[in-house]
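Title: Prediction job returns without error message
Component: structure pipeline
Severity: low
Priority: P3
Assignee: unassigned

Description:
Job completed but the reporter wants confirmation the result is attached to the right record. Sequence as submitted:
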Amino acid sequence: MVLVFFMTKGFYSVLRYLGVPRFTTQIISQEILGVLSEFGYGLFMFLIGVKMDLGMINRTGQKALCSGIACVLVPLVVGLLVQTKLTSSYFKLTADEMFKLPFMTATHCLTPFPVVACLLEDLKILNSEIGRLGMSAALVSDMFSVFLLFLGTLAKMVEESSARRSMLGIGSSIGYIIVVVAILRPAMYWVIRQTPENRPVKKTYLNIIIIVVLSSGVLSHMYGQGFHFGPFILGLAVPAGPPLGSAIEANLGLFVSDVLLPIFVTISSIRTDFLSLKYFKTDAFTQVNGILILVALVAKFLASIAAPLYCNMAFSDALAIAFILSCKGIVNLAAYTNFRDNQTINDPTFVLAITSVLVTATVAPIAVNFLYDPSRKYAGYQRRNMMHLKPNAELKILACIHRSTNMPAVINLLDAACPSIEHPIGVYVLHLIELVGRASPIFISHELQKKTVSNVSYSDNVILYFNQFVRENLGAVSLSLFTTISAPKYMHEDICTLALDKVVSLVVLPFHRTWSIDGSVESEDNNIRTLNCSVLDRAPCSVGILVDRGYLGRSTSIVAPQSSFYVAIVFLGGKDDREALAFAKRMAKDPTISLTVIRLVSTTNEGVDSDWDSVLDAEELKCFRYNDVDERYLLYMEEAVKDGPQTTFLLRSIADKYDLIIVGRRYEVQSSQTVGLSEWSQFPELGTIGDLLASPDFNCRASILVVQQQRMMRQ
């Protein structure tokens, strides 16, 4: 209403000088809003087509395939059977209403992909197991539904139009699809070839594509398929992801979703006249549709439960999938509005249909939130940390890579962990790529890459770099590489799920800040910081955040024969510090590493750990204190400090002596050694000591590894 008011005022303030009355400007404003709403929905469907990955159908598993087909086919068959029984025995409809009824039944059974994708994104479970299953099932059902609707629209054209016009409409639809496949899609690939790597697509190409999109919408509307048909088919022809798909999404996405689409929803919703329901008792067509809406919803819900249960899914998860696939949204709203506009349905039926959209769109997200918590599977009931590993057990580490600059530091850290045949390391590398221009996240195992969506090869430089590391440590290191293409706010799901599946003991995450050679902050990415915090909260194992101050990230190995690598561990006590000590023990086996254990002892008794923690600390420090390792490479020292300022002074005096400093996170753990420091902490994910060492004001060349031990349920 506010938009209508301002548009009317704006047009009147301009047109009044031409003598145009206020009433005329009000009509013009309404018409323009109507056109904008149609354009908005058409562009929305185009973007959905751009982001849809049809290659997912080839990779669809049994659960998704069964769920996708069942949630459309079962309600459709049941709805048609119920419709036949109602119209033959209980309700008397006109011939025109009998012809329209199957189209309404099919519409009630839709499971639109855009609706499911938006719901999962709003619930922030797009990358979860349920989210991926829902997206795959929705894609299968949507393709099935689009095919049925296309045939239904053609049948309606044949019935309502002359033979010549019907053939023209059918021929133009088929011809348009052929043009898109044979001409426009190759043209899209030509645009990609003309775009240099890591360079944006030219604005000229994007403007031409937008003009073609709008023209296709006008033409498809002229030939009876609706304005959105042409843009949607054209969107499917655009290669998803960068550079073209992501460029289109970046240029149109925000404007369409935040400006044009709300106009469409508002214009469609204000046509709903709830007072027209007073005719419900006397209108047989409305009564039949009301029954069919309910029957289709119940049949869809039961079918969506049955298929996952048949595939041995947990009942609560199957119930969540049923609510997701039964949800209605903007596509259903558009379909019902279109039927009302072309008088396929009357006002009371339209009100019932919109009510079904409103109810399911409200209940479904609430129910899914109640039924499904993606973080529950990460709950720590079984120990997965370094401290409780058997002495000669393989240490499994999940290393996360955002960009190529992260690789040298991570590889040097892995090298410093002293891989050997007696003490092997299993390395799982996850390359994290931001999802742009796609609706569905992609997870790739490079051991199975031949089964992926396209000929695009992801993470080539990561593969080459880590394969070289394996060759240098033959027999001591096993390697598995993965790539996830996902929105940053959902990447923690992929990290935690992979860590859980591979039973890793440590996840290594790059810090969100990078430093230049002179020690100044070069860049920072708050998306990475948010990701790190999410992993710390949910990880099913221990987590290490690697702060590379430049030295550790040198391209050449820093742990090499004829060279010395100086490592210090700052130990205050507690489970995180003991976990950091467990990682340092592996380093002590390498003769090229000089390890110093610095224990900060409080000069007061305030804020000391519990007696049991003290016992555990003493036990873990025993081998260092009594020097069970070669004394040439290990130094144990205790420093007495009274408070935070003394700790800061001590760390400043020694920081430049080391290449790597390992600390425990000790989040919200109070001790006299850190009194006064937490108030100045900028990055809580690093803990008090880690934040101090990573501060730009703390001028040191040492990189920092901040370790958090796995959080067990009882903790």
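Comment from assignee: result matches the submitted record. The mean pLDDT is 81.
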